[in-house]
Specification:
Blueprint: H1 2-6, E1 11-14, H2 30-38, H3 44-51, H4 67-79, E2 84-87, H5 92-107, E3 113-115, H6 128-135, E4 141-145, H7 152-164, E5 170-174, E6 189-191, H8 207-221, H9 232-241, H10 248-263, H11 267-276, H12 285-302, H13 306-313, H14 317-350, H15 354-357, E7 361-366, H16 373-384, E8 388-393, E9 399-405, H17 412-418, E10 425-428, E11 432-438, H18 442-454, E12 465-468, E13 470-471, H19 480-486, E14 501-514, E15 519-526, E16 529-535, E17 550-560, E18 566-576, H20 578-595, H21 630-640, H22 653-664, E19 670-671, H23 673-687, H24 693-705, E20 709-713, E21 719-723, H25 736-747
Parallel strand pairs: 1-12, 2-3, 2-4, 4-5, 5-6, 7-8, 13-14, 16-18
Antiparallel strand pairs: 8-9, 9-11, 10-11, 14-15, 14-17, 15-16, 17-18, 19-21, 20-21
Helix pairs in contact: 4-8, 5-8, 5-9, 5-13, 6-7, 8-9, 9-10, 9-12, 11-14, 12-14, 13-14, 14-16, 20-24, 22-24, 23-24
Length: 750
Amino acid sequence: MENLYLGNGRRWKIKSDNTDFSDSGNKIPGIIKRLLAQRGLKSQSEIWSFLHPTLEDLHDPFLLEGMAVAVDRIISAIENKEKILIYGDYDADGVSATSILLRFFKKFGMLPEYYIPDRIDEGYGISDIAVDYISSNGFDLVITVDCGISGRIQIDAIYEKCALMGKKIDIIVTDHHQCNDDLMPEALAILNPHLPGSQYPFKNLCGAGVALKLVQALGIRLNKPHIFEEYLDIAAIATIADIVSLTGENRIIARFGMDKIISDPCTGLKALLKVSLPDDKTIDSYRMSFILAPRINAAGRMGDAGTAVRLFTTEDAAEAEKLAIFLNRSNAERQQIQDEIYKEAVKIIENDNKYKEQKVLVVYNRGWHHGVIGIVASKLVDRYHKPAFVLSVEEDSGLAVGSGRSIEGFNLFKAMESQAEILVKYGGHEQAGGLKILTEQLPIFRSRINDYADSLITGEMLVPEISIDIEAKSVKDINLDTAKQITYMKPFGEGNPMPVFCYRGATLLDKRVMGDGKHLKLIFDIEGQKAEGVFFGKGYLEKGLFIGDKTDIVFTQEINDFRGLSLQLKLLDMRLSEAEVKRNQLLYKAALCVECLDWDEDWLLDDSTLYRNQGSRTGPESLKPERLDVESISRYNGIIDKTIKFDDIVVNRDILAVIYKYVRRMKSDSISVSDMFVHARILENETKMNINYFKFFVSLLVFDELGLLEFSLGTDGCYRVSFNDEAVKVDLNDSEILNWVTETAASMDW
């Protein structure tokens, strides 16, 4: 609610909209040109290629360093019927990559084994348990997918153990994570677009994307150049689930993978769609991210990731249905456990004041489920807008296993790298990662990671930012035709987000809550045309909005196909008009002056304040008229520049009477700052009197001073109001606060 009245909830960052096209043309709508120009695409050919991608636009897979060596070795293994192991990670990306290679080898009569480490017992990467398994089972070739780039020690151990047994083994590493020179293995071949010095044109493939490029290269050598297309559906799931940039090759994989999911999904995906989206035939990046991917991830999070591999590789419809139902149940269990841990983590953070000062959250507890701590870390980032590490402490091993998530501008991998000497193991990329650490080192890690972050994370970075593509200056940019044009830019996701617009001065015509009060439906007047908007999860804002309000809104434009096609604005943020927010901020600061609970000497340098640094108020009786001198008044009057009028800060007998009666009938004795803004608006509408936050707040201070009620600030940041049933009739002239406010208002140069 504070964002509505004080405008301080999120930073609005509007991108520059200087459209300069090197190649003009009329085939592409102007709004799309403007949006894509912001994303680095300006020529007609660049834009056309983006809007109409083809599989021929994929890069030559042999541009990946090590690809020729890897392909030769795999073809040799196929020809000689060698014993092959696919070693994958336990997340959606890892199991998808594993499944792609298993399905490919099956085409050539090969049935490789696969190994997915247990998330809890082994953790990310090649585990010590896996080293023993691989070394003792006679494999000729091991191919890692979505892992291995930091496995130097483990891969060296495999080579040594096999050599001691007189067994030769080759290892091919395929991965997409960041490279650390000290941890990179000595493998037969390494396929990773992030390899130092790599000339591969696209760096943002996920693990399954790298596996798909390997299959593409193998298909070229085996005279089956289109064979990789059979696995686009699985690769698309991984690409979207792993939150890699949906540009370049990833956009092509996602686009054509979605088409395959709709027209001809593999048996397992068909079953998963039937279970998770039984009545919905639409497939988009949102449904893949938040419905399909979590169910695939649930296998590794809650037990055996191999369940998802079996789903992706089976051709038996009955088996696929059983596996899909199992994953659906596992996902429901995951959600319950995740919510419990999240609540515990929030409680730990809220009960430790040090977290408020620190820029990186490091929270841990015994027995937290390893499979969901990454999701909990993401939710903590959403709540506090700080990088977060969530760790589960293992009593038996003396280790803590954790996951981290970051905010824009803070490289999590480099942050962990800076603490490498106290970490047992770590890996990941800029926005996410995993780690192991000795439990006794956790307090040290918390302290040192914050020391590292202090100079890198600015105060501005800790304020949530909403990125706006275009500020719509007229209604011609807000209509059904624009929404239709935007659909050409799909699929949306990381690197290619849904275009975001803002408009200033939309008049609120109607409002209502829906979905059991959780959501808000709004009707706006925009330059004489009605526009319907939905604000999901913001039903509580309804009480603070009033018909006729001038609002500034941030939104996406979507097509509502219920009962025909119509435009629907999906609201992302909302404020009262800029002038109203400024006025409310000044009224809030003026009320702080009257309250004078605590003064900060630095505020003297800020001309937006009303008061001088003279101490702290210990009670209403200590507030004296001389606290605000003429110089301060004149400075303040110049700053507000007539935004606040004389009548805005005059509190008279009639105002006091109206507010007192209203407060007496309020149902709750707890009042937040935003509540007071809302109560003032309600009273203003009911009485047609000029009642605002300042007058409401000052009235409560006056009532407290005169003994009519007790008005105090609670530890939760809300005020408490309790009435004195034994109060007697009072004389308003006895209120020093009221006299001071009246004298101050009268002395200002209006």
